[in-house]
Each structure stands twice: as C-alpha cells, then as structure tokens.
Design goal:
Helices cover about 45% and strands about 10% of the residues. The chain is α/β, with parallel strands linked by helices. A seven-stranded parallel sheet has the order 3-2-1-4-5-6-7, with helices on both faces. It is globular. The chain starts with 10 loop residues before the first strand and ends in a 5-residue tail after the last helix. It binds nicotinamide-adenine-dinucleotide (NAD).
Length: about 270
Amino acid sequence: MPTTDVAAPRVYVVTGAGSGIGQATAAQLIDEGHRVIGVDLKNTEVVADLSTEDGIAAMVEEIAALTSVVDGVIANAGTSLQAPMDVAIDFFGAVGTVEGLLPLLRASDAPRVCITASAASLHPANDDLVDAMLNGDRETAAAIGERLVAAGGGAGYLNYSSSKQAVARWVRRNALAERFVGAGITLNAVAPGLVLTPMTEPLLATEEGRQQVEEGMPSPLNGPARPEDVAAAICFLTSTAAGKIGGQVLFVDSGYDALTRGDDSW
Ligand SMILES: NC(=O)c1ccc[n+]([C@@H]2O[C@H](COP(=O)([O-])OP(=O)(O)OC[C@H]3O[C@@H](n4cnc5c(N)ncnc54)[C@H](O)[C@@H]3O)[C@@H](O)[C@H]2O)c1
C-alpha cells in the first residue's frame, strides 16, 4: 500500500541513493510517483562527496538549481569503515545535508526529514567523540577518531557506533528547535539492525564475520532485514501521513533493541 498520496507527487532528496537502503528508498518513492533527486559519490543525478563541507555546499547548490522546493530529505549516505570517515559522513555529512537543505524544506507545505542512524547507536560509544560531534567540532572529532584507530583492539569501531549515537541524539535534541518546528518540519531517524546490503556483504562473507554479527547484532525477529524493509519505514516517516511524529528513532532492527534494552528504555 502506498505510504503517500500518489495524486500529489513530492520532491525528495535521498543521499546514498546509489546502493542498499538509499537505492531501495529511492525506488519506492519513484514507484509511488514522486520526484527523487539521488545523491551519491557516483551514478546519481547529483554527485557529491558529503564527507566534506565543500562537498555538502556543492550538493546544496546543485539541488537549489534543480528545484525550489524539497518536501523530504533522507540523509542516509554512510560508511562503516571503523575510521574517522564514519564520523565525517555518518554524522557531519547527515547533519550538514539536513541543515543545508532547510531553506528548500521551508518551501514545502509538508516538510519531512529522516536520517539513517543505526541500532549500533546502542553499542558502546566514546563519550568525548559523541560530545565533539554534538558540539559541531569536526577537528576534535577527527583527532579522537584517529586516536581510537591507533589504539587498536577494535577501538576503531567506536567511530561508527559513536557517530550513530550522536546522530540519534542530534535528532532528539533538534526536533523541537525553532528552525524545524517553526516551519513544521518533522525530524526523525531510523535505526536499522543488520541489513543485507553491500555494506555488510564483506562481513557476512566469512564465518568469523557472521559469528561477530550474530553476537553483536542478532536478528531474532524474522531474521536480517532487506533494504526494502528499512525503505518502507523511511518512506512512511517522510510521508504526508507522518506529520505528528517528531524526534523519534524508529528501530527497524529485527528485534535487537527490544532484545538488548527490554523495557528498561524509559
Ligand atoms: N547495512 C546495514 O546493516 C546497516 C545497519 C544500520 C545502519 N546502516 C546505515 O544505513 C545507511 C545506508 O547503508 P547501506 O547498508 O545501504 O550501505 P551501502 O554501502 O549499500 O550504501 C551507502 C551509500 O552511501 C554512499 N556514500 C558513502 N560515502 C559517501 C560520501 N562521502 N558522499 C556521498 N555518498 C556516500 C555510498 O557510495 C553508497 O552508495 C548508512 O548510513 C549505514 O550506516 C546500515
């Protein structure tokens, strides 16, 4: 069933549209009759490197030349390299995309934002790194990230988990900020668990990797997700129907959150 009124096409920006969850989201929206401006490193209408401030600015400029209204921003591009690049793209890239497109969102009569966080936001994180991100301090965040990689022993992973925790907290913190709520812009996130995409393919290709995933991110409810499972949630959160939902982090995680946090999350 379509999540939006197909008689009223909307304009969506989807980052990371070249693969996995972003590609499935763009496909669903196009299927529902909407205009999708895809953004990625290659093979999309807008090609931009969202890990840098210049790349974000170029993307915003290009989109402003294509449309005067954006109804939905889906900030989904990301890496899981267990390195400072995760911080640059998964946090600063996502937040920069949303902030940069705010003027175009304000022109919509039902503006929506959804960021792709992760159930990895529930994994251990580095508090100083999370604080640096929430303070908008790219330099300190990169320096902490490098130190974590140098420490070895899997500490580099904290770049990923911390960036996803920071983005989820940023959503909670900003959903009622005047620049969003004043323009009726809803701001939410999805937090996928294990999704079968090119990002997780190499990990699942080895027995050791599969075991690591089974321990770190089990999928008790109907197994690992397909990109389309996450896309359905993103399309709902950015549809006209979701106007009263704000500051939510919707776990699309095959039960991982309920398994690990139980009812102790209130
Ligand atoms: N696959 C999973 O299990 C899983 C779980 C939780 C969260 N996520 C998140 O979902 C999002 C999408 O991941 P996916 O699994 O579809 O991965 P994917 O690798 O299939 O797609 C990610 C896309 O982002 C693009 N991208 C990466 N760096 C970029 C940059 N600097 N500028 C512009 N585009 C860039 C890539 O080119 C790629 O097309 C990511 O934010 C990821 O962290 C994935």
